[in-house]
């Protein structure tokens, strides 16, 4: 397996934000009269909001009211209430630096909005390192549809089998698989190894992957 590039997920991978996103969904739903359990929402983190909402409340979507306002309020809660308490994933910056030093083309693929991405990259302390991004505005359909990963592959101008995605949810694995990209998963997003079974390798967090870098698919590809 020869690699030229890495597609990076952000939430749950570079920043420990999945709980915060789930809490913001629960709070926004509740403010509009919908009682949705935290655990039910948490299990869907990594899925785009436009996909998550109708799965939780079938009569809602983010294009019509009240779903449109619920989705908007959720973003505001993340940015203004929960963001100050979100921490970077262990080793996030050091791993990004290592991949860039290794000559890998690194591009972001996230279902987040451009504003959310800006905030999360600062929290991850990689905003000065990563400038090539694809967000919800670059894809017609969000994860687990393959659109956002396909957009990242196209932006990088690389073949999908020459790239790997670093991510943390089963929805990332499904999205990448649909685009022909293999996934290295991290557990810091809160999903079990069973849920991440489609990944070619699983590590605790970016620091764990960095510690085992030379023997990981990233290091082995470089060595090959």
Architecture overview:
Keywords: Hydrolase. It is a single chain. With 224 residues, the protein is an alpha/beta fold. The protein has 2 domains: 5-17 and 86-223, Rossmann fold (3-Layer(aba) Sandwich); 18-85, Orthogonal Bundle (DNA polymerase, domain 1). Helix content is 42%, strand content 11%. It contains 10 helices and 6 strands. The protein has a 6-stranded parallel β-sheet, sandwiched between helices. The longest helix has 16 residues, at 67-82. The model has no long low-confidence stretch (mean pLDDT 95).
Q: How do the helices and strands line up, and which of them pair or pack?
A:
Elements: E1 5-8, H1 18-31, H2 38-42, H3 49-56, H4 67-82, H5 92-101, E2 105-109, H6 114-123, E3 133-134, H7 147-156, E4 163-167, H8 170-178, E5 182-186, E6 201-203, H9 206-211, H10 217-223
Parallel strand pairs: 1-2, 1-4, 2-3, 4-5, 5-6
Helix pairs in contact: 1-4
Please summarize what this structure is:
This is HAD family hydrolase. This protein is α/β, with parallel strands linked by helices.
List keywords for this structure.
224 residues; alpha/beta; DNA polymerase, domain 1; 2 domains; 6 strands; 11% strand
